[in-house]
Specification:
The structure is a single chain. The protein has 113 residues and is α+β, with helices and mostly antiparallel strands. It folds into two domains: 2-40, no CATH class; 59-112. It has helices at residues 2-13, 21-36, 65-70, 74-85; strands at residues 59-64, 92-99, 105-112. Strands 1-3-2 form a three-stranded antiparallel beta sheet. Strand 2 and strand 3 (105-112) form a beta hairpin. The longest helix is centred in the N-terminal third of the chain and has 16 residues, at 21-36. The N and C termini lie far apart (57 Å). The mean pLDDT is 80.
Amino acid sequence: MSYILQVIKKAFLWSYERNTWQWDVLCVLILSFIFLTPKAWFTNGERKGRGVHPKDAVSTVIMNREVVENQKDNGALEERVRALTGRPDAQVVSKRPRLDSTGQTMDYEVDIK
């Protein structure tokens, strides 16, 4: 029983020498976890406080504050986004202000799909 506890302790504290088979096994386990873990395990399905599902927002564009504030309706803003991205089917999903350390709006993040 003490042998098993000793192995677990060494594995947890990573105290094996670099040229041992135990080191290789630990590296393979870590790499397997990194590359074989489904991406869905690391997403919570919603963006906190934003109300936009990540699958709905295909990409985010950073736009100048004056451009977004001058385009009060989404139709005009969508035309600007389409011209900027070169995607004729782009639709604005949401827009969020990006604030500096003083709380002033620097620019906007515009989610498009």
